[in-house]
Amino acid sequence: MANSLISEVRQGRFWITGSVGIAGALLAGFLIATAGYVGSAVVVMLPLALLVLIGILLEPRFGMLVYLQYSFLINVLGRFAQIDFPFGVIVDGILVLTALSVVLNGKRMEWHRLNHPTFYLLSIWFMYTLLQLFNPEAPNKQAWLIHARPFSLHWFFVGFIMLVTPIQRSDMVILLRTWLIWSLLAALWAFKQQYIGLTPGEQLWLDTFGAKTHLLFGHLRSFSFYSDASQFGAEMAGVSLICLILLLERKQWISRLGYLVLILIYFWGYAVSGTRSALFILLAGYPFYLLLKRDFTKILAGGGAAAVLLGILLYTNIGNDNYQIFRIRTALRPLEDASFLVRLENQQKLANYLQHLPFGAGIGTSGDAGARFSPDHFAAQIPPDSWFVELWIETGIVGLTLYILMLLAIIGIGTYKIWHLNDPWLRTMMYLFIAEFTGVAVMGYSNPVIGQFPTSSIVFISSILFTSCDRWDTPVRKPNAEQVPASW
């Protein structure tokens, strides 16, 4: 009787499994037949999406890995996918699911780490942007959601998740390698654009939208597979700084040679982007790294090398025959640049408009969201051309001051934590993250890349890493499962 019962159960499972399989096959066939390539993509991606969903719910660390990878992939999808889809919404879904995973796995989460000054800072900024929903100057609440996400929502979610999740040292290595590999692919694609040519889709984008800002005096500003050349140039400058620090910190010559090659590739990627303001990631990040080292000899040597380079760019015409070098040089002479003078004029107009609006015109009233939802609003008439100017317009002088103080406090917390680290490997990793963070923050005056992928994700993740780095510190370096070998 027992054998009969087991047989019936197995037959029941067979029919259930078979029915589900047949139904799935019929659905797949229907999607492919009716929706063509899109249906085929859905058939392929649906099982993968299900596996990713399960993985995120089981392990928050996996969710952060997906968030990181998708922050780079979103640009590829936006550039090459021939469908009209808001790919940015997927980022929201990943972060919400990861936060849910934190709750579901609450027993092994380190909840006491929310008692952290960085989380308090992010919470205050998040609450301020939330209160902006009631700003009477803002005409559209949907526009608020579009800009509040890069302003504060994503950063708040990343801070919450990363502080309580038991992040491992090996996760930092994954972050660094992901960053360098995606950037290398981006640089190679930019060289292809610059020296071989554009794809038909890229050429169409350039002809219809991008030529005004990406084709200057007959020279292409390479944008790779990023949203635009500014975002690409910022990333190239950022990873150039990362590799420069690694070059100085590593002892083995073979490693130094490898990082030197990467510096040359990334820096030339920055050059072909034509993004002059990205130079300030290097001009701010590198001196800050030297300051963190507190090594007087290296400060003098590094300062001397930087002074020679700046002197060549400022006071000579060496290399002007090359357009990329010429354009980099113009970044150091802003008062001779017509576009910079126009920015100053626009900022004066905004100052007159905002003098009686201490809390700003409302989140979502400028830039792309303003042009879409409230094109007749004064704030939508003047391009911000800067992350800080955009914050000033939408959150007022109160919001801008709060944001800048938050950035300075985060850098201060990170500096204090790094100076008290014992582990040399960990200290070097934190040098990378905080130096790049500082450089991007300075670039925020002239460009809004802090609010764009993947820079925003890197900034959000790295800020939590270097302000809570003491949790990975070790009094004495001893080989164990938590430590990363020198081959990183």
Automatic annotation (TrEMBL):
Main localization category: membrane
Subcellular location: Membrane
Keyword presence, Zinc: no
Keywords: Ligase, Membrane, Transmembrane, Transmembrane helix
Molecular functions (GO terms): ligase activity
Pfam families (UniProt xref): Wzy_C
Membrane association type: Multi-pass membrane protein
Xref: InterPro entries: O-antigen_ligase-rel_domated (IPR007016), WaaL-like (IPR051533)
Transmembrane segments: 12-32, 38-58, 87-106, 118-134, 146-167, 174-191, 229-248, 253-271, 299-318, 391-416, 428-445
Residues of the O-antigen ligase-related domain: 262-404
Source organism superkingdom: Bacteria
Protein name: O-antigen ligase family protein
Taxonomic path: Bacteria, Pseudomonadati, Bacteroidota, Cytophagia, Cytophagales
